[in-house]
Specification:
- By secondary structure, the protein is an all-alpha fold.
- It has helices spanning about 5-15, 20-25, 25-35, 40-70, 70-80, 85-95, 100-110, 115-125.
- The N and C termini lie far apart (about 40 Å).
Length: about 150
């Protein structure tokens, strides 16, 4: 593993902390120590942890997208928002205009039956309430099983 790979691993692991890094500040230091470890077992364990997290995220994203009939791009937008990103960040990373992403977000809202980003994020995370007393959450319209793509649940 070269230094670029180590830094990419560090970004992946620390990025996966999300809000937990703020709640448990000592986790960042501990994870940095693990990434910096020269022990091949520890390094492999960290790589496996990142890979497992990516697989779990991809599976959740696929299930949510199939349930509501989202396109691949719409699923990526939802995933980016769930990870704490903004519309502007996503647009910049993908080389799209902010207006294009906002238009896609409106399509996501129509398909999922929500009217606010917070409600969408809560729904994607499997929460029943959007954390705003239900203000942003209308009755969702998941597609029936017969309308989802083959192999999806």
């Amino acid at each position: 593993m070269d230094s670029d790979d180590i830094e990419a691993l560090r970004r992946e692991i620390l990025g996966a902390l999300g809000p937990f890094g703020d709640i448990y500040p000592s986790m960042k230091g501990r994870l940095n120590q693990l990434v910096d470890s020269n022990d091949p077992f520890v390094r492999q364990l960290m790589e496996d942890l990142v890979a497992a997290g990516k697989r779990q995220l991809a599976a959740r994203q696929t299930r949510f997208a199939e349930q509501y009939g989202l396109t691949l791009r719409e699923g990526q937008i939802v995933d980016h928002l769930v990870a704490g990103g903004s519309v502007a960040e996503y647009a910049g990373r993908q080389g799209l205009s902010e207006q294009t992403v906002r238009s896609q977000l409106k399509s996501i809202f129509a398909k999922t039956g929500v009217s606010r980003q917070a409600a969408l994020i809560g729904m994607a995370l499997g929460r029943r309430d959007d954390g705003e007393g239900g203000a942003g959450l209308r009755k969702g319209r998941p597609k029936s099983r017969s309308q989802t793509r083959p192999g999806g649940e």
